[in-house]
Amino acid sequence: MTISQTTPTAAETERETLTAGTILARAEAAAPRLRELSEEIERGRRLPEEAVRLVRGTGVFRIGMREEWGGPELTFSEQTRVIEALSYGDSAAGWCAMIGMDTWIYAGYLDETVVKEMLADADAITAGLIFPVGRADRVPGGYRVTGRWPFGSGITHADWVVGGCVVHSDGVPEPGEDGAPVNWRLMLVRREEVETVDTWHTHGLAGSGSTDYRVTDHFVPEDRTFDFTTPRDSSPFSAPDAFLGNVPGVPLGVARAALDHVRELAAHRVERATDTPWSDSYRVQTAIGEAEMQLSAARYAVYGSLDELWARLRDGVEATPDQQVAAALARLNAFRTARSIVQRLSDLVGTASIYRTSPLDRWLRDLHTMCQHILAQEQIAQSAGAHLIGGTPQAPFPLGLKG
């Protein structure tokens, strides 16, 4: 399969208005070739040029672009289905697509002149860590920024890079709004303005190219900075956690790929001890049935909560505590369930799954790495529980809470 048979080039995509259905169909069509490229993606520890062109050509990087800017403006559920389809092809490609489409979420907080500059490429890709591990000192017209950030997923093929910073005035950290201890602001720069540091030597998700990156005393003009408290509008894309909506598409797509792989194996395997076909084996039947049950439940929780979240944000309805935590808990559950499913499928297949030639080996390693992400950690459950009973969440931001 070649790129021209699956998706158009980015230039061809630029000339047309894409719909959610078209983008999803292209993502599904791209998945088989991404699967073929998986070994190269992992070996190179980044997406190769062909994979970048293929993913970009689906239109995934514009799925958060507002209709008023000429974009398709996909809902959270529609976005997640696209990421799920790409992740079905390759974990790292899906992860990079999920990260890279944040360009148009961030644009909703930026000055209009900067947005117009970004609109020159509807398929622009953004990478970077939003948490404030850098330092930004106020100077006339902007900031002098110094810092080193980890986890720059997709930075090797990005157009723009963000980095969260603590703002300083006269050498002293500024307090944030509403009693926040620091003023947390994001800096946006061109990819060529940052230096990458080759740190991404990992057990899993190697192909995401999530290296460290840094700048030293770099000037960033005021209009290329933003925070999540001052959106340009009140659309669902302006919610503090809007860029997290499609995250569960990655583990869901990987788990679906693993299940389909083992179901295909089952058609030709037999139990060695009894010579029973896998299709007639009670243990295999039970494992497959329970895995399908778990994935279906996790998937419906994700899409149900995302549809409810979108409708509530669109209509400006204030959330109850239970509604506020629903999408975050469904997201956390998707990661944990996907890893559990692939672990059980690996146990079912046995020693054949431990070799690097087995996709189960890569999927399990990739999911293990994904589950170390802050969005899949225990503090999300703690924060949800705390919010429900009036306590203090340790991680309010992933729940869409401002503090």
Automatic annotation (TrEMBL):
Residue span, Acyl-CoA dehydrogenase C-terminal domain: 251-377
What Pfam families does the annotation carry?
A: Acyl-CoA_dh_2 (PF08028), Acyl-CoA_dh_N (PF02771)
- Is Oxidoreductase set as a keyword in this record? yes
Task: Print the keywords alphabetically.
Answer: Oxidoreductase
Q: InterPro entries annotated for this entry?
A: Acyl-CoA_dehydrogenase, Acyl-CoA_DH_C, Acyl-CoA_Oxase/DH_mid-dom_sf, AcylCo_DH-like_C, AcylCoA_DH/ox_N, AcylCoA_DH/ox_N_sf, AcylCoA_DH/oxidase_NM_dom_sf, Histone_H2A_CS
Acyl-CoA dehydrogenase/oxidase N-terminal domain: from which residue to which, for each copy?
30-105
Family annotation (PANTHER family): MEDIUM-CHAIN SPECIFIC ACYL-COA DEHYDROGENASE, MITOCHONDRIAL-RELATED, NRGC PROTEIN
Which family does the record claim for this protein? Answer: Belongs to the HpaH/HsaA monooxygenase family.
Supply the name of the protein: Acyl-CoA dehydrogenase
